[in-house]
Input
Amino acid sequence: MLAGAPRSPGNRAGSLRLVGRGAPNTTVADAAARLVFDPANSFVVGAFVDGQLIGTAAFYRERGLKERHKGRIWGVYVTLGMRGKGIGRRNLKVLLERAAAIEGIEQILLSVNPAQPAATKLYESLGFRSFGHERRALRVGDRYVDEEHMVLYVDSSAM
Ligand SMILES: CC(C)(COP(=O)(O)OP(=O)(O)OC[C@H]1O[C@@H](n2cnc3c(N)ncnc32)[C@H](O)[C@@H]1OP(=O)(O)O)[C@@H](O)C(=O)NCCC(=O)NCCS
Output
């Protein structure tokens, strides 16, 4: 049911519904750009039932010279009818295991809408901690969305 293989940007990226950090502004082209230039350091974990994609969790490494010790999670999503069955947690565990194994990755960051308690609880249960609350982080038309910024240090020397 679950596949943790890297996905090439050309194959099924166009069918993904993009959610999570920056979701309202994240286009398929943005997502493809995160994957295409640095495939060793960016990937999408997907869960499938009968060949149907029912859950995603994606990771990319920062590219700047002074930021390459950081990676970011985006695109965490499980389809409505499949929630509460452990799929989101499993996807993230696969992602974290693989991300932490990338040489030089010391911390993994994400941003979550505090109005999504399921996601926030899931991240906290995996060890993520909030380091800041950004009011009106996103603007969607006339509507604003706050974001909680969270981090997980995978390099214990940073604790
Ligand atoms: C967040 C999301 C990916 C979780 O996926 P899921 O497969 O339903 O989650 P799991 O079944 O693996 O549950 C993992 C944990 O999440 C939390 N959780 C899940 N559903 C919850 C709910 N309805 N209320 C509170 N906590 C919940 C729990 O801590 C749970 O752990 P537990 O089962 O040991 O109590 C899913 O709810 C989703 O797609 N939400 C909409 C998109 C979204 O918010 N994405 C995150 C953007 S940053």
Summary: The chain has one domain: 2-158. The pocket of coenzyme A is lined by residues 19-20, 76-78, 83-89, 112, 116-119, 121-122, 125 (CB under 6 Å). The two ends are 35 Å apart (CA to CA). Strands lie at 2-3, 42-49, 52-61, 70-78, 107-112, 129-140, 143-153.
